[in-house]
Design goal:
By secondary structure, the chain is mostly helical. It folds into three domains: 156 residues, 3-Layer(aba) Sandwich (Rossmann fold), CATH 3.40.50.620; 155 residues, Rossmann fold; 179 residues, Orthogonal Bundle (Arc Repressor Mutant, subunit A). It is 48% helix and 9% strand. It has 19 helices and eleven strands. The protein has a three-stranded antiparallel beta sheet. A two-stranded parallel ribbon has the order 1-2. Helix 15 crosses helix 18 and helix 17 packs across helix 19. The longest helix has 25 residues. The protein is elongated. It binds glutamic acid. The site of glutamic acid (GLU) has 9 residues, from helix 6 and strand 8.
Length: 506
């Protein structure tokens, strides 16, 4: 049975690099009907952040990465929070001490600092000098009896090769002379990451350790511990990081948003986010780019993952997210958009009107936060725009033609049966809403084009002033969409405001 895990430390918001790693481990497990486990690694109390675990859980749930076992769902191997597993580590460290693969170290911080200083002076790598390895049993017992503080270190052999085959990075080997006698248990009795991770991955039957690239150099220490315990080691796959633009450094706060909650606030959808993240390191070997989670589970393959980091590209994320918005059921999109902008909703954005708004936006925006400009045009119209801008020399829209355009458009709009149009929106099946909008847009557009023709004028002479008067700006949905959503009364009111504005122009 394939069992993978995501083992974050609760150090604050979940970075999208962490989400990508979790996603790879999740997809790998689910592809073979395996289990995916969440384990919280909180033994480093200095890095602990209140609420960090809840943040991680929330982010995974938002993304649709559902774990089979974890702190809040339980499971056969509970507890899944390391600080609740103290006794377990105690038992296993005793085993290593008994076997002589670990030893107590009583060195004071002063001594360790002095040692490091000397190593630096002599340009030697920073490593513990095994000072306490030579203590006799009596000396150790005496020190313990005196209440001296100690840590427990692993004994790294001198010159052995540790080799493993990383499922992403390929063959990797390290010589143990490069390894430090790593602290396994700290003076507060809690294990370090290196010890807890091995004990837990073993006890939780993890078959594949899929984790961030930065842990590659720790892997030989872990493999040694497996050997010392005589346990079967898992397979390893180290996932390359997300790089900042430029491709040299890891993506960090300096480049802008990095945590999952920031992307949620910007209105990215989970579908878009996971699709984009998986493409940062994996591709299916075809030109296909847009996938649902189910499709990813089916297609994902660790052997197709690239070894190098991938550069974060916000434009591509936006594009991928936009594709998922277009693909959604319109009424589901409407609900998501409504939830997102709830604080801005006002009386004018009533149910029927908001459905129309969602239909229009579903084709226009790449992330939910982009709703604002069109929302304001439609529901918070600012009448104080500069009337001069209604006229446009290039388009041939002068004061006379604009006035004609307004008066004729008012007549045109008054002739439309909006009640019929609106009742159909409410009745229409979700999957047909976009088509319905297109047919109304076409219908209103044809009316305007006929008007242009009948008046023997140019498109811009009519359409520019009308669009400007309806929006007070030059970036907006089409006038035909605007007339459809604003309805008779509001469209006519805005055109009359336009008439007043040009009347006073010189
Ligand atoms: N607790 C480690 C972290 O925060 C997990 C490393 C691992 O997956 O082994 O990244």
């Amino acid at each position: 049975m394939i069992r993978t895990r995501f083992a974050p430390s609760p150090t604050g918001f979940l970075h999208i690099g962490g989400l990508k790693t979790a996603l790879f481990a999740y997809l790998f497990a689910k592809k073979s009907d395996g289990k995916f486990i969440l384990r919280i690694e909180d033994t480093d109390q200095n890095r602990y952040v209140e609420g960090g675990m809840e943040q991680i859980i929330w982010s995974l749930k938002w993304a649709g990465i559902n774990y089979d076992e974890g702190p809040d769902v339980g499971g056969e191997y509970k507890p899944y929070i390391q600080s609740e597993r103290r006794e377990i580590y105690q038992k296993y460290i005793n085993e290593l001490l008994d076997k002589g693969f670990a030893y107590r170290c009583f060195c004071t911080n002063e001594r360790l600092e002095e040692m490091r200083r000397k190593q630096e002076e002599n340009k030697m790598p920073p490593k513990y000098d095994k000072h306490c390895l030579s203590l006799s049993k009596e000396e150790i017992d005496q020190k313990v009896a005196n209440g001296e503080k100690y840590v427990i270190r692993m004994k790294a052999p001198d010159n052995e090769w540790i080799k493993f085959n990383d499922l992403i990075k390929g063959k990797i080997e390290f010589n143990t002379k490069e390894l430090d006698d790593q602290v396994l248990i700290k003076s507060d009795g809690l294990p370090t990451y290196h010890f807890a991770v091995v004990v837990d991955d073993h006890l939780m039957n993890i078959s594949h350790v899929i984790r961030a690239d930065e842990w590659v150099s720790s892997t030989p220490k872990h493999i040694l511990l497996y050997k010392y315990f005589d346990w079967k080691e898992p397979e390893y796959a180290h996932v390359p990081p997300i790089l900042a633009p430029g491709g040299k450094k890891k993506l960090s706060k300096r480049e802008g948003s990095v945590s999952v909650n920031e992307f949620v606030n910007l209105g990215y959808l989970p579908e878009g986010m996971i699709n984009y993240l998986v493409l940062l390191g994996w591709n299916p070997g075809t030109t296909e780019e847009i996938f649902t989670m189910e499709e990813l589970i089916e297609k994902f393959d660790l052997s197709k993952c690239q070894k190098a980091g991938a550069v974060f590209d916000i434009k591509r994320l936006e594009w991928v997210n936009g594709q998922h918005i277009r693909k959604m059921d319109t009424m589901i999109f409407r609900t998501k958009l409504m939830d997102y902008i709830i604080q801005d909703i006002n009386k004018r954005a009533n149910n029927e009107s908001f459905i129309k708004f969602a239909i229009i936006e579903q084709e226009r925006i790449n992330k939910l936060s982009e709703y604002k400009q069109d929302f304001n045009i439609i529901y918070n119209f600012d009448e104080s725009y500069d009337g001069e801008l209604i006229l446009n020399e290039k388009m041939g829209a002068d004061k006379v033609s604009a006035e004609l355009a307004f008066n004729e458009s008012i007549k045109l709009i008054e002739s439309i049966d909006f009640e019929k149009l609106n009742s159909e929106v409410i009745k229409t099946d979700n999957s047909k809403l976009i088509e319905l909008k297109k047919s109304y847009e076409e219908f209103i557009k044809n009316k305007f084009l006929d008007l242009v023709k009948n008046l023997n004028m140019k498109n811009g002479q009519i359409l520019w002033p009308v669009r400007y008067a309806l929006t007070g700006t030059d970036k907006s949905p089409t006038i035909f969409e605007l007339v459809w959503i604003l309805g008779k009364e509001e469209s006519v009111r805005r055109l009359n405001i336009g008439i007043k504005k040009i009347e006073v122009l010189g």
